[in-house]
Write a structure and sequence with these properties.
By secondary structure, the chain is an alpha+beta fold. The chain has two helices and five strands. Strand 4 and strand 5 form a beta hairpin. It is elongated.
């Protein structure tokens, strides 16, 4: 069993950078010196779906769209829609190292507000599945 998480994250962050060029994307949020809004690929889980004839791997990902200092949530929703548009058009996500994206499926979107020491963070949560084939 091979692990495609690295390839998924690289492709996803690249595509997020194209869709939202003014927004940084992270897999680990820096402790200092980051600006809002930002995207955080916070969770990625792998479920092995392979058998003797096929090598398919099922992943679940969570992307967080994090804003601060909003007066209304329309910007948050616009950014969330940009992330969802990648999921709706799986042809946009090209993997490397003999992995192919078979499908992307939106699981859910939601939002949260978190009070921090420096104010309220508004977080859009986008969870989706990706099925990857290993064609090596």
């Amino acid at each position: 069993m091979r692990d495609a998480r690295k390839q998924i994250v690289i492709a996803l962050i690249s595509k997020l950078g194209e869709k939202l060029p003014a927004v940084s994307a992270y897999t680990i949020v820096p402790e200092k010196e980051y600006s809002y809004p930002y995207l955080y690929v916070s969770d990625i889980f792998q479920n092995d779906e392979s058998n003797k004839t096929t090598k398919e791997y099922d992943y679940e990902l969570l992307v967080q769209v994090v804003h601060k200092g909003l007066t209304d949530k329309t910007v948050l929703y616009d950014n969330m829609n940009s992330v969802v548009s990648i999921i709706e058009n799986r042809k946009d996500l090209t993997l490397t190292d003999d992995f192919v994206c078979e499908y992307l499926q939106l699981i859910s979107t939601s939002e949260a507000e978190i009070q921090t020491d420096t104010g309220i963070e508004y977080i859009g949560l986008i969870r989706f599945r990706i099925l990857v084939s290993d064609i090596s």
